[in-house]
Design brief:
With about 280 residues, the chain is α+β, with helices and mostly antiparallel strands. The chain folds into two domains: about 110 residues, Arc Repressor Mutant, subunit A, CATH 1.10.10; about 120 residues, Trna Endonuclease, Chain: A, domain 1 (3-Layer(aba) Sandwich). It is about 35% helix and about 20% strand. The strands form four sheets. Strands 7-8-9-10-11 form a five-stranded mixed beta sheet, with helices on both faces. It has a two-stranded antiparallel ribbon with strand order 1-2. About 20% of the residues are buried.
């Protein structure tokens, strides 16, 4: 069996030492050959099965690496997890129920259960599922990550010329402003951004506060984005003299899908029709 070297650490002495594990190609092939139940398989379950199937020694099973203050299993986190991630990217595995849920072989089950073959309906259901998964991933990350995600999205949407024309400033506590996008190179036209990674809905006081922050910058337009929703009072708030665009979690994830932020294409299907003109015989 081909192997590759990983670096482990002794929990007692803290010393590092090399240890061999099966190569990624071997592990990926073994993952595809696992017996998948209708409910799928988790990475933790796969790790246990693979350790037996590949005949790992006790030393390989307990080998760990240190990450911060934690000791992580090399086989699970350094071998099996990357293999699963790669197989998902290649379209060989999928998670029908979303992130952090069991894996199945791609195409072995359909979460959509479409009986009428309506392609547009299936497409919209796929979008809704991806949108839900995106929102889970966003909420699992830090507010600082969310601020940068928002800037990336707005740049992809055409706000500002490039990523260099935008910056996330929320961590500096810049008067309630989380991001700044220069619409032109000289910074004469600026859009200010407020980003809230919240579970609770955003109310009118937050919109009023953002308007006040805009006034402090001498600006009159901004974008307020949240992972949750806006209360009716927030939507109805009259920020006289200010143009404030509100983007809730549902619209945010749809925009991310539309502009390819945080998503990647797995497969592309072409819809064909009969070319009637081809079947017209030349009477001459």
């Amino acid at each position: 069996m081909n192997t590759e070297t990983k670096i482990a650490v002794d929990r007692t002495t803290g010393k590092q030492y090399p240890i061999e594990f099966p190569t990624s190609d071997i592990v990926e092939q073994e993952i595809l050959e696992l017996n998948y139940s209708p409910d799928g398989i988790t990475k933790r379950e796969a790790t246990q099965r693979l350790s037996e199937k590949l005949g790992l020694s006790d030393e390989q099973k307990v080998a760990v690496r240190k990450q911060g203050e934690r000791y992580l299993s090399i086989f699970h986190y350094g071998v099996v997890t990357p293999a699963f991630d790669k197989l998902v990217r290649e379209g060989k595995l999928e998670q029908p129920e979303g992130s952090h849920k069991p894996y199945v072989l791609f195409g072995s089950t359909s979460p959509l259960h479409s009986s009428d073959g309506d392609i547009e309906e299936i497409y919209q259901q796929i979008r809704e599922k991806i949108a839900g998964d995106l929102l889970q991933e966003i909420k699992a990350n830090s507010p600082a990550f969310f601020e940068n995600l928002v800037i990336d999205l707005l740049v992809e949407m055409g706000y500002g010329g490039s990523r260099e024309d935008a910056e996330a400033v929320g961590r500096s506590g810049d008067g309630g402003i989380d991001g700044i996008i220069n619409q032109d190179r000289l910074g004469l036209d600026v859009v200010y951004v407020q980003a809230k990674r919240w579970e609770k809905n955003v109310g009118a006081p937050e919109i009023a506060g953002f308007a006040g922050a805009l006034a402090g910058k001498g600006a009159n337009k901004g974008i307020f984005i949240t992972t949750s929703d806006f209360t009716k009072a927030a939507k109805d708030y009259d920020a006289a003299g200010f143009k404030i665009i509100l983007i809730d979690g549902k619209r945010l994830t749809q925009l991310m899908i539309d502009h390819n932020v945080g998503v990647s294409t797995v497969k592309t299907y072409e819809i064909k029709r009969v070319d009637s003109d081809y079947f017209i015989e030349d009477a001459g």
